[in-house]
């Protein structure tokens, strides 16, 4: 292509011109890795998983909150 300035490595690339597509113009190339992929070891989580349930004390607090505030009128326009 003209934009390659004779560079043979760019013969399989394309340039997306801004007047043909939305945006400011893009350059696209598909890369190929010729080596071997390194193995990736799984990382162990250091944080202790939290319980997804609530305790009896938390449930009692919720019921108290609902009882205290459910009878109050809420005025959001104030």
Automatic annotation (TrEMBL):
Methyltransferase is among the record's keywords: yes
Signal sequence interval, chain numbering: none
Keyword Methyltransferase on entry: yes
Keywords assigned by UniProt, alphabetized: Methyltransferase, Transferase
Gene3D superfamilies listed in its UniProt record: Vaccinia Virus protein VP39 (3.40.50.150)
Record-linked InterPro entries: SAM-dependent_MTases_sf (IPR029063)
GO biological process, any: methylation
One Gene Ontology molecular-function label: methyltransferase activity
Official protein name in the record: RNA methyltransferase
Organism of provenance: Ligilactobacillus salivarius
């Amino acid at each position: 292509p003209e934009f390659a300035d004779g560079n043979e490595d760019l013969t399989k690339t394309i340039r997306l011109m801004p007047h043909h597509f939305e945006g400011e113009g893009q350059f696209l190339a598909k890369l190929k890795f010729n080596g071997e992929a390194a193995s990736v070891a799984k990382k162990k989580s250091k944080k202790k998983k939290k319980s997804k349930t609530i305790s009896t004390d938390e449930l009692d607090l919720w019921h108290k909150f609902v009882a205290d505030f459910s009878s109050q009128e809420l005025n959001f326009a104030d």
